Amino acid sequence: MSIHNIRKEVMKTLESKIHGFVDDFLIPIEKIWQPSDFLPNSQNENFIEEVKEIQEISKELNDDFWTVLIGDTITEEALPTYESWLMELDGVEQDPENGWSKWVRAWTAEENRHGDVLNKYLYLSGRVNMREVEISTQHLIADGFDIGTSTDPYKNFVYTSFQELATYISHNNVAKIARKKGHKLLARMSKIIAGDEMRHHKAYTAFVKEIFKIDPSEMMLAFEKMMKHKIVMPAMHLRESFNTKGSLFNDFSTVAQRVGVYTGFDYVDILRKLNEAWEIDKITGLTAEAEKARDYLMKLPDRMYRITERIVIPETQFNFKWMIPA
């Protein structure tokens, strides 16, 4: 049996549990928060005053902070890219009754709210050149990105387990900074978005844990390959108007690390957490090749931590087209 067919069989086995996954990790549409719960109500007579208050408070946050928030918003808005890639996985079918396609659509629908509320908030803040932000968003969706997983659900679920925890960290740190600056509304928004990302992280780690029970050696090898390939951030192809694909990522990454929203140490910590969540040190019945992969994964966090300690974050100031001076 080919590797694709084996993956499909495993996914078919897990599909019988998909309704439980949906109930455990997603929230019914009528009960979950919506962007309008956090934004000023345009039908309220105090709407203009509330917007002015947001704009005044927004002046207290520096350009580095807004740059990170813009990058987070743009990557959240690139949802069409992520859904289209997940719908191509082995075992996921376009059939509306397919359990996995139901999961992908429901997960995407939850994620869609994040970009929606953040985009509107950026617009109201008065600190952002929204046309430039919108151009970057359109470029990111049009450019697409290759995370090195092909149609392999094992690799893809490693990616989503990692990436959802990374976005939790990023939004949670934004919330902390906003709260310290007295930006209570933005802090609440970012905190609740972070909560969504943590639920999604737990879902994808649960999927991987189930696969480890059924196909431990191949799951271990997929985990190793993803970590050797290194997790590619969705923002890797960020660009501004009239610039080339990916030309903005290094500058954006520098700012995110400088602000402390997402750093190399966070990357290492996520890897440690995945090793612990999947209890890879306790998994039995592995092939010799998978045992070597396990050894590599167990040693990797310490090795990467030592490398990260030597990285110096430059203080270079970048002139992003996204920004309007305070």
TrEMBL record:
Q: Where does Fe cation 2 bind?
A: E111, E164, E197, H200
Q: Which residues bind Fe cation 1?
A: E76, E111, H114, E197
Q: Is-annotated flag, keyword Lipid biosynthesis?
A: yes
Q: Where is the signal peptide?
A: none
Which co-factors does it depend on?
Fe(2+); Fe cation
Q: Which organism is it from?
A: Tenacibaculum skagerrakense
Q: Which GO terms describe its biological process?
A: fatty acid biosynthetic process
Question: Which SUPFAM superfamilies does this entry report, sorted A to Z?
Answer: Ferritin-like
**Which keywords has UniProt assigned to this entry?**
Fatty acid biosynthesis, Fatty acid metabolism, Iron, Lipid biosynthesis, Lipid metabolism, Metal-binding, Oxidoreductase
Q: Name one Pfam family in it.
A: FA_desaturase_2
Keyword Protein transport present in the record's keywords: the answer is: no
Family label = Belongs to the fatty acid desaturase type 2 family.
Tell me how this protein assembles: Homodimer.
- This chain's protein is named Acyl-[acyl-carrier-protein] desaturase
Question: Which Gene Ontology molecular-function terms are recorded?
Answer: metal ion binding; stearoyl-[ACP] desaturase activity
Which free-text remark accompanies the cofactor?
Binds 2 iron ions per subunit.
